[in-house]
Structure formats: C-alpha cells, structure tokens
Design brief:
By secondary structure, this protein is an alpha/beta fold. The protein has a domain of about 110 residues: Hypothetical Protein Ychn, Chain: A, CATH 3.40.1260.10. The protein has a five-stranded parallel β-sheet, with helices on both faces. Helix 4 links the parallel strand 3 and strand 4. Helix 2 runs parallel beside helix 3. About 30% of the residues are buried. The N terminus is likely disordered.
C-alpha cells in the first residue's frame, strides 16, 4: 500500500509543477484504458486526501494546500487532511496545532480526526477544536476516498 501512496505523491508533484511524464505512443488501432487514479488536465481528481500521523505533518499538509493555490490543475481541488495516531490528540482545543488550524487553514482544506485514534488514547472528541471533524476510522476514510478517485498522500 505504501507504494500506492508514493505513486500518488509522485503524481501530485507532477500535477502541481505542470510537468507531464513522457508517454509512449500506442500502436495504431490499439485501445488504451486510463489507469486508475490517473488525473489529467481535463480530468481533475475530485479531491486530495492526506493521511498524517505527526503534528508537524499536519502543519506541512496545511502549507502544501496553500502552495497548491498557484497550481493550474490543483488550485481549487478540495483537500482532506486525515489525522491519525498521536497527532489526533494534538487537535484538542487550546493546543498550538488546534490554534494554527483555527486561524490559518485554507478554506478548501478540511481537517478530520480519526475516531479510532482518539478512542485508543482516551480522548473525548468533544474536546477537539470545532475546526476539526471526527471520522470513525481515518484509514478507512482515506481508502474510501482513494477508491473514489482522490489523489492520496501518506505523510
């Protein structure tokens, strides 16, 4: 699965820089099927999902969303940042990370906390900042989005 996330990240880099990989021409009469999750300039992905496990990666994901605003192909693509593991606990109201999300998350970015991670750490979801939505299982959510055609990145 890690190779899928690496491939998606490579695709994200290619799309955000405007570079197109070289593609060999198909023989005459040969049909080519589009590869799954392959986004083109005319077929933008429905969104981007970033699965993160460390608080510094949440900050990096937020910055990446801001940086993508200058990308021709991804400037308006919605982004979901799914926070799992220890970082989910850093989303409680009053923490530096929660304040950063409240004050500076781009409009097209949603921050989602993994409910399973919160439960495993004994954290009441009601203590999270209002800027964060809780999903029952962050990994399942990211995999569902990937199946829906979202670009996926694992940080």
């Amino acid at each position: 699965m890690r190779s899928v996330f690496r491939s998606a990240f490579a695709l994200l880099v290619v799309l955000s820089t405007g570079l197109a990989p070289a593609v060999a021409a198909a023989p005459a009469g040969a049909e080519t099927a589009p590869s799954p999750n392959a986004a083109t300039a005319t077929d933008a992905p429905p969104g981007i999902v970033m699965l993160v496990r460390r608080s510094q990666h949440v900050r990096a994901a937020l910055q990446t969303v801001r940086d993508l605003s200058s990308s021709d192909s991804l400037s308006t693509t919605p982004v979901e940042i799914v926070v799992c593991g220890n970082a989910a606990g850093k989303l409680r109201r009053g923490t530096p990370l929660a304040r950063r999300i409240e004050e500076g998350a781009p409009d097209r970015a949603s921050v989602l906390a993994c409910g399973m991670s919160l439960e495993n750490r004994g954290i009441d979801p009601g203590r999270l900042t209002a800027a964060v939505e809780v999903v029952p299982n962050g990994l399942a959510h990211a995999l569902t989005r990937e199946a829906q055609g979202y670009l996926s990145v694992d940080l």
